[in-house]
Amino acid sequence: RHYAERMARAEPPAAAYERRVLRSAAEHHYLRVRLELPDGGARPSAAQFKQLVVVALRELHGEVGAALPVDVLVYEEKSLSAILRVISSGLVKLWSALTLQGSYQSRRCAFRVLQTSPFLLALSGNSRELVL
């Protein structure tokens, strides 16, 4: 009887575990994208590029998608690349809309998402393009 009482007291109390899933606390996500136009031709201006992004969102997600706040922070017409800013909750909608966009002014095109990060500074340099 005494042995059983001692063993009961020696057992630690049952541990209570709480599962916590933390989402990124960042308000925005940034994407480095490139538009590929295989047949050449006229290149979109910054305003046309932004309109193409809005059209892609509208075609896939309707008016709710088109209302998603997306900013073109940097656009290089020469390379057709841009850095986009979107609220973090809209990252998947934007990425999917860009991926499925297939035409610009009745010409074939494709968006390539090159990098994405919740930190703009992470997109400022790419170690794969580093020239020593």
Précis, in short:
By secondary structure, the chain is α+β, with helices and mostly antiparallel strands. It has helices spanning 2-10, 46-66, 91-100; strands at 28-36, 70-76, 81-87, 103-104, 107-108, 110-117.
Topology:
Elements: H1 2-10, E1 28-36, H2 46-66, E2 70-76, E3 81-87, H3 91-100, E4 103-104, E5 107-108, E6 110-117
Antiparallel strand pairs: 1-3, 1-6, 2-3, 4-5
Helix pairs in contact: 2-3
Q: Could you explain how this protein is built, in words?
A:
There is one protein chain. With about 130 residues, this protein is of the alpha+beta class. It has a domain at about 30-120: 2-Layer Sandwich (Alpha-Beta Plaits). About 30% of the residues lie in helices and about 25% in strands. It contains three helices and six strands. It has helices spanning about 1-10, 45-65, 90-100; strands at about 30-35, 70-75, 80-85, 105, 105-110, 110-115. The strands form two sheets. Strands 2-3-1-6 form a four-stranded antiparallel sheet, with helices on one face. Strand 4 (about 105) and strand 5 form a beta hairpin. Helix 2 (about 45-65) packs across helix 3 (about 90-100). The longest helix has 21 residues, at about 45-65.
